[in-house]
Amino acid sequence: MLFQQITNGLTIGMIYALIALGYTMVYGILKIVNFAHGDIYMIGSFLGLFFLKELQVPLYVAFIFSAVVTALLGVTIERAAYRPLRKADRIVPLISALGVSTFLISVAQLIWGTEMRPFPTTFGAKIYTVGSVTISEIQILILVLSCLLMVGLHLFVKKTKIGTAMRATSISLTNAALLGINTNRMISLAFAIGSALAACAGIMVGIYYNAVYPTMGYMAGINAFTAAVLGGIGSIPGAMLGGVLLGLVEALAGAYISTQYKSVISFAILIIVLLIRPSGILGKKEIDKV
Amino acid sequence: MMENVLELQQVSVKFGGLVALNQVDLNVRRGEILSIIGPNGAGKTTLFNIMTGIYQPTSGQVLYNNQKINKLKPFKRVELGIARTFQNTRLLKNMTVLENVLVAHRECNKEGVFASILARSSFKKKRQAIVQECMEKLEVVGLADKAEQLAGSLPYGEQRLLEIARALATDCELLLLDEPAAGMNQTEKRELIKKIQLLSKQYHIEILLIEHDIQMIMEISDRIVVLNYGQKIAEGTPKEIQNNHQVIQAYLGGEVD
Amino acid sequence: MNRKVLTFIVAALLLALPLLLGSVSEFWMHVMIMIGIFSILSMGLNVIIGYAGQFALGHAAFYGIGAYTAALLLINYDLSFWLVLPIAAVVTGFFGFLLGTPVIRLRGDYLGIVTLGFGEIVRLIFVNWVDVTRGPMGLPGIPAPKLFGYTFSGKIEFYYLILVLVIITYIVINRILHSGIGLNMLTIREDERLAASIGIRPNKYKIMAFTIGAFFAGIAGAFWAAYISYVSPDAFRYMDSVNILAMVILGGSGNLAGSILGASILVITPELLRYVSEYRMLLLGLAIVLMMIFKPTGFWGEKHRKLNFYGKAQKGEGK
Prior knowledge:
The complex is a heterotrimer of chains A (290), B (257) and C (319).
Chain A: H1 2-30, H2 37-53, H3 59-82, H4 91-112, E1 127-130, E2 133-136, H5 137-159, H6 161-171, H7 173-178, H8 183-209, H9 216-231, H10 236-256, H11 262-276
Antiparallel strand pairs in A: 1-2
Helix pairs in contact in A: 1-5, 1-6, 1-8, 1-9, 1-10, 2-3, 2-4, 2-8, 2-9, 3-8, 5-6, 5-8, 6-8, 9-10, 9-11, 10-11
Chain B: E1 4-15, E2 18-29, E3 33-37, H1 44-52, E4 59-64, E5 67-68, H2 74-80, E6 82-84, H3 97-102, H4 106-109, H5 113-118, H6 121-141, H7 156-169, E7 174-178, H8 186-201, E8 206-210, H9 214-220, E9 223-228, E10 231-236, H10 238-242, H11 245-252
Parallel strand pairs in B: 3-8, 3-9, 6-7, 7-8
Antiparallel strand pairs in B: 1-2, 1-4, 4-5, 9-10
Helix pairs in contact in B: 6-7
Chain C: H1 2-21, H2 26-51, H3 59-76, H4 81-103, H5 108-128, H6 130-133, E1 139-140, E2 146-147, E3 150-151, H7 155-177, H8 180-190, H9 192-197, H10 202-228, E4 230-231, H11 238-251, H12 256-272, H13 280-294
Antiparallel strand pairs in C: 1-4, 2-3
Helix pairs in contact in C: 2-7, 2-10, 2-11, 2-12, 3-4, 3-5, 3-10, 4-10, 7-10, 8-10, 11-12
C-alpha cells in the first residue's frame, strides 16, 4: 500500500514539477507569478487532444506540436499582456494575468465546451505489477519523460550559452542587460520553455486521467505554484524537488487522511511555507535595499 | 548635561559576507546637531536604517533615551520620537502637500473607525486642529502656500523640504536628515541651514545629519562623525575634524580652508 | 449646485423606479437588485484592493459566509431577519479578520494565491460539510424578512431594502475612507516602507481593510439568502470573485462611486447581450487585460478622489 502510494505520488509529483518549472522560470526573471500559467497548461492539454483526435497524428507528434504551439502562446501572452506593464504598479500585471486566465478558460469553453472530454488514445492502459505495486504504462511514460525533460532543461541551463544567459538574467535583470544579453529574448524564452513543459504535462495528465476540461488549470496551477514555492521559487532544481515532494505528500495524505480535502492539504502546505520560510527549501533569502 | 538621546554601542551590520558597519560607537547628545560624513558606500544610510529599525544590527545595541530599542519595529520608533527623511525623496506624489504631512501626524494615525463613521462635531474640531498643526509645520519649511498642490509637482528642493515638514509632523524628538541639501542651490542651502538651526534651538529637536556639503557641515554641526568602509575613523568638533589627518586623507583629499 | 441637482434627480429616479417600471419588469427589478448586491460587494472589495492595495482574490467566499450564516440562522432559529443581518455581517467580518491576520505579511502575488486558496477552501467546505450545509443541494426555504408584521413578498420590498443598504454602505465606507484611516491605507498602498517610517502600522490597517470588506460582503450575502430564499455553493465560486474584482477595476480602484458603476456595467451587460452570453467571460478577460494596459486606474479613476478631504486650513488663524 505504501509503495503504491509512493508510486502514484511520484507520478503526480513529476507533473507538478513540470508545471512548476514554468512558474519558477518566469518568477526567477520577472519576479512575478504568472497567474495564467495553469491555463496555459490546460490549453496545451486540449491542443494535444486536438492533434490526436482531429489530425490523428501519432502520440509523439502530438507532444511536439502541442509543445510548440503552446510555447508560441506563452510568448504571445507575455508580449501582449505583461510586457506593456513592466513599469506599472506591482498589482497591475497580476490583474492582467487574471484577465488572461479568464480569457483562456472561456476560449477553451467556447471551442471545446464545458464538459470533461476523454483523451483519445489507447496508449498507456497496460498495467505492470512489481511486487505489491501496480504501475501503468502511462505512469512509466510520465516518470521517464518528465525525467528526460527535466534533465534536458538542467543541461540546457547549465551547459549551453543561451541557458547560461537565461540564468544570468534571472540573477539580475539589469546586470544581464549591461552584459549585452537581450533580456527580452530571455524572458520570451523562459515563457516558451515553461509553456512547452506545461503542455507536455497537460497531455500526460490527459492520458493518465483520461479527461480534460477547461477549468483543469485552476487546481493544477495552484498545486504547481505550491510546489514551486515549497522548493524555492526562482530555483529550477527547487521546482523539481518541490513538485515531487508535494506529489508524495498529497498521495500519502489523501490515502491516510482524507481524499475530499486533499486540496486543502496542499493549501495548508502553501500557507505554512509562505509564513515560515517563504524562500522555500532551496531558495535564497531576498534582501531589498532601502 | 551631557545626556545621550541616542546611543549606538559597538553596532555591526553584516549582509551575508558584506560588512556594512563594523563595531560603530556613536552618540547624539541632548540639544546638539551631529553630522555624519564619509565617502559613498561608507555605511551612512545603513546607520540611519539601523536607528529607524529597518535593519537589525548583527551585533551591538541601539539605545534611545537609555532604552534598548534593537527589537522595536519602525513604526514603534516613530512613536517614541525618531523621525527621518530619505536620501531619495519618498513622497506620496499623487497626494497633496498637506496630505503628505497629515499622514505623519500622530492624531491622524489614531482616528478610529466608529469615530470616523459618526463624524460628530467634536471629531471634526479635532481634525481642524490636526490640519492646523500640519499647516504650522509647512510654514516652518516655507511650503504653507503650496498646501493644496500635488506633492509630485514641487521642484526637487521643495520636495526635500516637504520631507522635513513631514518628519516634524510626527512630533519627533530626534530628526535624522539624509542628505537634505542634495539638489539645492546656494540660496536654498542658506535657508536650509537657518531652518535646521531653528529646529534645533527653538523646537529642541536633536538633529542627526548626513551630508556631503562640507562647508554646510562645518557651519552647522556641533560635532562630526566620520565614517569610512563601515568604520568610524574620527569624531569631534568641526575644528578637530578639519585638522584630523586621517580624515583628510580618507575623504577630504586635501586641506580645507 | 450642479452636483446637488444631479444627485437629487438620481435619487428621485431610484426611489420611483418600481413605479416607473410598473409591472413590466419583475426582470428589471431583479437586475436592479443584483446591481445593488454587487455594488456592496465591490465597494467592500475596493477597500481591500483599491485603498489598502492588497491583491485579494476569493472575495466571493465572504459573500458565501454571510449568506450561509444568515441562511442557517434564519432556518434553524426563529430569529428576525433584522437581527440576523448584522450578526451575519459581524461573523463574516470576523472571518475577514481571521484571513487578514496571517496573510498580510505576504507580498502581492503570494497574497493573491493564498486568498484564492482561502476562497476555494471555503467553497469546498460549503460543498462537503453536508451535515450543516447540505452540500451541493444547498439550503432552501429561507423565510422572508418581516417588517412590522408585513412579510416581504415581492421584488419591490427587496428593492427598497437593497437601496437602503447600498446607501448606508456607501456613506459608512465613504466616511471611513475620508478619514485618517483612508489616508493611511493609501500611504501603505503607495509605499509601505515609508508608511512604517512615519508611524503608521501597516498591519493594523491592512487587517482593518479585510475586516471591513468582509463585513459588507456579509451584508450582501445575508440579503441574498433572504432574497432568493435558497443558498447553494454555486453562487460563490472563483469566477464570481473574478467578477467582483473586475467591477472594482472598471470603476477604478479607490473610487467608491466607480465601484457602483462597475457593478452596474457588469450586471447589466450580460443581460442586455443575452445572445452573446457565451462570449461574456471571454470579453471580460479581454476587458481586464485592456483596462490594465490602457486605464489601470479605471475609467473614472483616482483623479476624482477628493483631494484633501480634511478641509482647508484657515489661514491667518492661530498664527
